[in-house]
From TrEMBL:
Keywords from the named record: Aminotransferase, Pyridoxal phosphate, Transferase
PROSITE patterns named among the record's database cross-references: AA_TRANSFER_CLASS_3 (PS00600)
Protein's name according to its UniProt entry: ornithine aminotransferase
One term of GO molecular function: ornithine aminotransferase activity
Annotated Pfam families: Aminotran_3
Family per similarity comment: Belongs to the class-III pyridoxal-phosphate-dependent aminotransferase family.
Source organism: Gillisia lutea
Cofactor: pyridoxal 5'-phosphate
InterPro entries, alphabetized: Aminotrans_3, Aminotrans_3_PPA_site, Class-III_PLP-dep_AT, Orn_aminotrans, PyrdxlP-dep_Trfase, PyrdxlP-dep_Trfase_major, PyrdxlP-dep_Trfase_small
Length: 410
């Protein structure tokens, strides 16, 4: 039994691999936009487990779906059918407007799945020779941490000494349609263009207006699949159900994770129309837990909450208010350069170098003041609260953030 934060941190330090550098806070309870540490201190959660807890912590409807299903049937594997998967797939494909869904568990797995589908599509439908298919990716991407995905990462910390790396990826600048066009024109064997509609881990980089639309047009022109990784941006986070909806773009392959299950159970999914998805045949891809009844029940409930509670609209309104209030402060700020984002996926950029510890120091001070956020770089702090946040709570949070930042102005 854990009785203090210190004790829990010491245990992790001694017995756990050191593959993360968490803020020194030990959480034991969550409800809506709040979490509590083991000493009983209450915080606003301004990270939402990297945009997974969009529906708020322990949403009663999602938790109910979990506990009800847990008493009936949890896992069959795909050796047999279960009575939840089909209804979940019907609901989700209608919701996101695709023919078919392939269920997985984590974001990285879903990205790997999309890469496999795109390659097979290129070999079978486009006549690309075996072992020649290439996927175009962007500088400063984040798509997960498998050996293939880190092969095309820019993050040296994530990549170094984990080689040999997987071939088959061409990297171009983000938000650069000229670079995309050039690469598409100069290469014959392109299967797909894999892109985050907003780069989350890179520090919430919002591309220029029209970028996604133009990129999709170029992909169409060159018969290349437009693959949107909406693991972080999807499920109402940016003020629309999907971030590509801001530009009315329909991807050929859509990758979802995180908030598809409201953070209650790991679920991810790849969606595509028949022409693409039907390249996958029995035995070619799968996972013991992918498509299990617990996942299906939880994800269906989590998507219903997004719709029933108008969380996309709330994210848009609260996001606009958040940036407006912070911008008022930033005009005279020496410490904050700018705030950027869409909906409730935002970041502030600090007037300091990427290697500085300023963002970390500010997050430590925010923690003292009752708000939890995490830097993405030494000078960037991401702000991504649950989408159920109301106006009063949001204003309270902005007060905490500004009061904290003011201490750093001195
Ligand atoms: N894609 C994007 C855009 C992400 O932001 C993340 C996680 N931050 C992932 C993929 C990987 O998801 P997971 O951690 O569930 O593997």
């Amino acid at each position: 039994q854990i009785t203090s934060s210190e004790q829990a941190i010491q245990l992790e330090d001694k017995h756990g691999a050191h593959n993360y550098h968490p803020l020194p806070v030990v959480l034991t309870k969550g409800d809506g936009v709040h979490v509590w540490d083991v000493e009983g201190k209450k915080y606003y959660d301004f990270l939402s487990a990297y945009s997974a807890v969009n529906q708020g912590h322990c949403h009663p409807k999602i938790v109910q779906a979990l506990t009800d299903q847990a008493q009936k049937l949890t896992l069959t594997s795909r050796a047999f059918h279960n009575d939840i998967l089909g209804p979940f797939e019907k609901y989700a494909t209608e919701y996101f407007n695709f023919d078919k869904l392939l269920p997985m568990n984590t974001g990285a797995e879903a990205v790997e799945t999309a890469i496999k589908i795109a390659r097979k599509w290129a070999y079978e439908k486009k006549g690309v020779p075996e072992h020649k298919a290439q996927i175009i990716v962007c500088e400063n991407n984040f798509h997960g941490r498998t050996t293939t995905i880190i092969s095309f990462s820019n993050d040296e910390g994530a990549r170094k000494n984990f080689g040999p790396y997987t071939p088959g990826f061409l990297k171009i600048a983000y938000d650069d349609t000229a670079a995309l066009e050039k690469t598409l024109e100069e290469n014959d064997n392109i299967a797909g263009f894999l892109v985050e509609p907003i780069q989350g881990e890179a520090g919430v980089y919002v591309p220029s207006e029209g970028y996604l639309k133009k990129a999709k047009e170029l992909c169409e022109k060159h018969n290349v699949l437009f693959i949107a990784d909406e693991v972080q941006t999807g499920i109402a986070r940016t003020g629309k159900l999907l971030a590509v909806d801001h530009e009315n773009v329909k991807p050929d392959i859509l990758i979802l994770g995180k908030a598809i299950s409201g953070g209650v159970y790991p679920v991810s999914a790849v969606l595509a129309d028949n022409e693409v998805m039907d390249v996958i045949q029995p035995g070619q891809h799968g996972s013991t837990f992918g498509g299990n009844p617990l996942a299906g029940a939880v994800a269906t409930a989590a998507l219903e909450v997004i719709r029933d509670e108008n969380l996309a609209e709330n994210a848009e309104n609260m996001g606009n208010l958040f940036r407006e209030l912070l911008n008022d402060y930033i005009i005279d700020s020496k410490i904050v350069k700018l705030v950027r984002g869409k909906g409730l996926l935002n970041a502030i950029v600090i007037n300091d170098s990427e290697e500085s510890s300023t963002a970390w120091d500010i997050c430590m001070a925010l923690k003292e003041n009752g708000l939890l956020a995490k830097p993405t770089h030494g000078n960037i702090i991401r702000f991504a609260p649950p989408l159920v946040m109301n106006e009063e709570e949001l204003k309270d949070c902005v007060d905490i953030i500004i009061t904290t930042l003011k201490d750093f102005e001195k």
